[in-house]
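Appendix B, record 7
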Amino acid sequence: MQSQVAHQIERTSLEDEISTEATFDADELSPAELRQYRARNERMVVVPQIGADGNATGLYTVYSQSGKKYLVDDMGDEKCSCKDMKHRSPDGGCKHVRRVRLLIRETALPAAGEPVEPFFDSDLSEVTSSPR
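Structure tokens (predicted):
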């Protein structure tokens, strides 16, 4: 059920961006611009970890388009378990960190310390309207 909830979060918040195809020459983008484009347009599912108090912990599991799973820590210094963060530590974060931040900013994902319940209906199977 948790992956179904995560998929609904993904689909609800990024429906327009995922279905919109942009045409550009990737060689013309800086590495930061390319990471931002990928963060917004690649298919990823983000699942917040929930503390005993019902609030988001600031840790998020990101399932990438390639089928790999990464752990993103959005508390203070954003961290991710991916190779990009490990080897390059890019300014602004990897595409996984950027996706988590995009979803939080677009109010489709609870930020650390925010209650998770307002983002879902009572059985946690469907995304409800944004609490912010």
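Remarks on this record: Residues 1-20, 124-132 have pLDDT under 50 and may be disordered. Residues 2-119 form one domain.
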